[in-house]
Amino acid sequence: MARAFPRLSAGPRWSLANLFRPRILVGCYAITPSRDHTQNAHTAKNKYPGLGLDIRHDDSNDRDVIYPIGVHYNCYGSESDMLFVREVAMMMVMESIMDKPDWHVKVFDAEIANKWKVEALALPVDAVYKEIAEERIAWHDGAFAGQAPTPKIILDEACVDYCIKELRAKAEYFKRSGLVPTLDASATAVKSDILIDEELKQELRNAFQKLKEEQKASPDWHPGTESRVQDLVHPSLYPLVYGSTRVMQDEVVGVEDAISWAGRGEVIPQSTEAPSLVDIRRSVDYSVGGSR
């Protein structure tokens, strides 16, 4: 998905999330199955939060088994450390630079690195702040009630100098591994240019163009992007629906053959229990992902 944030010029790259553990999608949340060891090997069923386990399942004994999910702030892995706006801006700048061809070589060229620093410092504060914090920061003081005031400055020379130093460290890691650590916060994500071959890249481009053409008459523009970001396949359109969604407890769907599993499995039963009331004891004004 493209950003409303005014990025530095970049070439196409290919991203991936952490795919090192088998996972299943429940609604929009990826989790790793917890095995029911009380049954024998022929009847054992995989259990997931919302399927065999409580939707807010949080057992410290399963923290190495169940992939962190964000269904509710009581769930393990749903909370994250609060990040400063400046820190997020620095990650965005580094992400843009790491999208440039041969960035891992050019970052050691002082002249090019200085050019990138100038570009980063020239980014408009209002646009950067809007991308990071719009509708995410509440303010309850006098004339600014409802929205925090936009800062006069976000990035300074010290910030962009640090970005170049960190990028050079990432470049060394990239040379050894072929992987680019991109999100460095409570969670970590990496991307790579070498894990997807040219044939698959072309298939993805073709599929993208087909989706775009099919939605040409009525594009789904992402809110707040002024018709610049189009949601081709929005995850919120395909949630887990009890009594409708098909699930599989006997097998774990892999990455290579995932498409062949479409339409298979059994319909997840309609829950007979009344949903619990939303816990509003924690003030949303002072929390991010449930953390105070």
What does this protein look like?
InterPro entries: DUF4246, DUF4246_C, DUF4246_N. The N terminus and C terminus are likely disordered. 13% of the residues are buried. Among the domains are: 101 residues, no CATH class; 38 residues. Strand 7 and strand 8 form a beta hairpin. The protein has a three-stranded antiparallel sheet. It has a three-stranded mixed sheet with strand order 4-5-6, with no helix packed on it. The longest helix is centred in the middle third of the chain and has 21 residues. The radius of gyration is 22 Å and the shape is globular. Helix content is 26%, strand content 10%. The chain has 292 residues and is an alpha+beta fold. It starts with 14 loop residues before the first strand and ends in a 25-residue tail after the last strand.
What would you say about this model in short?
The protein is α+β, with helices and mostly antiparallel strands and 292 residues long. Helices cover 26% and strands 10% of the residues.
